[in-house]
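Recall the central idea of this unit: under ordinary conditions, the amino acid sequence of a chain determines the structure it adopts. In this exercise we apply that idea directly, starting from the sequence alone.
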Amino acid sequence: MTVRDPRLTRRRAAVVLVGLAGLVVASLIGGALVGSVPVDLARAFDFAAPDNPDHVILFKSRLPRVLLGAVVGGGLAASGAALQALLRNPLASPDIIGISGGASVGAILVLALGIPGPAWLLVPGAAFLASIATLALIVRLSTLRGRLNPYSLLLVGVIANTIAAALIMLVTSLVDSLRAQGVMVWLSGSLAQRPYSLVAVVALLSIGPAIVLWTQARSLNLLALGEETATQLGADVTRVRRTSFLASALLVGAAVSVSGVIGFVGLIVPHCLRLAVGSDQRLLIPASFLGGGVFLVWCDAAARTLVAPTEIPVGVLTALCGGPFFIFLLRRHEEGRGL
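Accordingly, the structure predicted from this sequence is:
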């Protein structure tokens, strides 16, 4: 449950956020330097010879990759933190409740069917619209007698993921083998080979909604006390839900459109940070954005180096970490409820 922390002061929030921002910068530098091929920094920073291998590896391959990892990880983690508060369910995250699966269906329809138009606009747009539609359907099916049931939402999310997987397989079976292979590679989650222009677009599509979620932090704290109590204390529950759902869907759509499905970031990071900084959304949402970036940058670095020169898709690595973590949280949550 998320509640307002009376011990949260501006000084404490500033210390936490500045510390996490420092970790982000350190992770960007470290992630850019880590790889299966060592880089000579003197040659890499020789801008007079931009075609030398060290310069290309550092500035055209690794740096845009770690920047994208920070943005995607931050968006997924911030979305997970907000959804857990909004749904009053500690097991909620974009991939578990089906938002990521819906977004991936929209993006894949554009990628696999070769819909004409600018890909940088069509793919995120399709992912966002699909994530909104999926989220609206999930919430509608999980609402009983006017109340959102958090546990029904998890079950509906599992069903939504299953349907999304089936639709993806259907689309894959209808396209040629080259496109089908590309779709399967994309589905496993990857941050590779993205230009700076695309990183900038995803950053714009992520930072804005994350700020919107942060502006809803006080109302999200009130929602943890229950809808009736939140309403009595002045929160417009309908508006908060609509705004938070839209912002979360945009974060997920932006992430999925460029990286594929990278699961469990929105589950692991908010939980770990909640233990460290508390559950007040005024601090947890921005902390999750920064912490999610750190987490995904290092997951991607591990994916590039663990079995070098072969690269593990980062989505596979986060799933291997997140699956057991989810089971642990589920068991702990059920034991806490006395079941």
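DSSP finds 14 helices and two strands in the chain.
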